[in-house]
Design brief:
Pfam families: Phenol_MetA_deg (PF13557)
Protein name: Transporter
Number of strands: 11
Structural class: mainly beta
Number of helices: 0
Helix content: under 10%
Organism: Salmonella enterica (Salmonella choleraesuis)
InterPro entries: FApF (IPR025737)
Order of helices and strands: EEEEEEEEEEE
Largest sheet: 8 strands, antiparallel
Strand order of the largest sheet: 1-2-3-5-6-9-10-11
């Protein structure tokens, strides 16, 4: 930790994605598939009040899911710089989120595999804030994120503004 003189904190994580979705024509293609996720996060305190975070996430399915669709792998890169007030349970930040979702594939009844042209790339940037309620060990946050880049490999609706609301609990 930086309290012991280290230049930054590093967190490494991993997860197994469970096949919790339902099967059938009326359910999302690619559901019901096992998958995995790995994460790497770097945190740096620049001053006692200014903190920066950078995180990387890579996830994807190990197998085909519902309707014989294998979803594409996803890469995310998130960064933020936050000002943490000393005398208030409040912080303000500027966040950036980049995500790339690769196109998935569908296996046809004749055994051939086709690209379903469903990939997207998006980069959004915007302000956010968090408020802590120390007595309950909760925090609440919100942010408005505006697109810098949006690309879709198929006709799809994409947001003009992404509104995010967060609730967190510490133990």
């Amino acid at each position: 930790s930086q309290r012991r003189g280290d230049p930054f904190w590093v967190t490494v994580g991993g997860a197994v994605l469970l096949p919790t979705g339902q099967d059938g024509d009326n359910h999302l293609p690619g559901n019901s598939a096992w998958g995995g996720r790995v994460t790497l996060t770097l945190t740096k305190l620049f001053t006692p009040n200014i903190k920066g975070d950078m995180g990387f996430v890579y996830q994807g399915p190990f197998e085909r899911g519902n309707q014989d669709v294998k979803r594409g792998n996803e890469f995310q890169w998130n960064t933020q710089v936050r000002y943490m007030f000393s005398d208030l349970p409040l912080d303000l930040g500027l966040e950036s989120a980049y995500s790339n979702n690769a196109s998935g594939t569908k296996k046809l009844s004749n055994g051939s595999v086709i690209n379903n042209h469903s990939g997207t790339t998006e980069w959004v940037v915007g302000p956010s804030f968090n408020i802590a309620v120390d007595s309950l060990k909760l925090w609440f946050g919100a942010g408005a994120f505006f697109p810098v880049m949006q690309e879709a490999k198929s006709p799809t609706k994409m947001e003009d503004v992404r509104w995010e609301f967060k609730i967190g609990k510490t133990w």
